[in-house]
Amino acid sequence: MTLKEKGARWYITNGVYVITTRLDEKINGMAAAWVTRVCEDPVLISVAIWEKNYTHNLLKQSGIFVVNILREDQTKVAIHFGKQSGRDINKFTGISFREGKTGAPILDDCLGYLECEVVFSRKLGDHTIFVGKVLEEGNKKGGRALIYKHSDYF
Amino acid sequence: MTLKEKGARWYITNGVYVITTRLDEKINGMAAAWVTRVCEDPVLISVAIWEKNYTHNLLKQSGIFVVNILREDQTKVAIHFGKQSGRDINKFTGISFREGKTGAPILDDCLGYLECEVVFSRKLGDHTIFVGKVLEEGNKKGGRALIYKHSDYF
Predict the structure, then answer these.
(1) CA-to-CA distance for A129 and A140, rounded, in angstroms?
(2) B99: pLDDT confidence band, cut at 50, 70 and 90?
(3) Do A34 and B34 touch (CB under 8 A)?
(4) pTM for this one?
């Protein structure tokens, strides 16, 4: 099935992100694409997460998350965080990171990050949108953002 | 100021869209970038709109909108719909369109469109996110999506 046959919604453009969180001593991260800015003043970011993802309930309880923005050469990182569940493995084994001010992991190797606290959330269908106020943002070494392409993952 | 100096939020990737609506006999459209899918089942799309845009109140009252997805060669269309206000002019003069099932305009020349009815909205800072359920979607002649680049418009 070509992109054109799949419907116009597949032409909506998104980047690729690793959304990380921490609940007590548990850290986890998942790949996500449905991320966008939603407000300039204050700076707010929304992230839509499927309710069956392990990260969903961790984030819902902790109220904190980091948007780690992947570079165009990091499709493998997206697959690492997107194709396995934190219920089964510790995804951070072998991944270099530091803890942000909230304790959530910030990947050492990415384009940039936004550390957020949830100011609003709402269940919509089988997803929840979490809207976060940016507590801190930072850039890494530069480069271009990875753009989501369905065929990279399915 | 380089992209890197401007902060990580500028690395979040968005496409470029013309959001149209109709309230009674008044039609209008505006350029927007902060658009994303937020749910697969049902198919839901969120659009963040600055509260001072003319389209904001029209859409809030009508509860309907169309996401017209721009092609990579349509920066001028984004400028047309983004740099003038429907308070002052009729933006559709000289623009070819048809009315969707809700009566909102669908641009004849674009990559694809999603006609939506608002199922949820929420004011967040100086923007409102409108979440729409897709009533109908369609593709045009193919091509690639226009990706938002700040320097194209400022």
Answers:
(1) 27
(2) very high
(3) no
(4) 0.96
